[in-house]
Amino acid sequence: MTAPLEIHPIATVVGGHAKVADDYQGGTEAIIRLNPDYPAETVQGLEEFSHLQIVWHFHHASPTDVALHARSPRNDPRWPATGTFVHRNHRRPNQLATSFPRLLRVDGLDLHVTDLDAVVGTPIYDLAPWFPAMGPRGAVRTPAWVDEMLPDYWSDAHERG
Question: DSSP E strands: which ranges in the chain?
Answer without folding.
Answer: 11-14, 29-34, 52-57, 96-99, 102-107, 110-114, 123-129
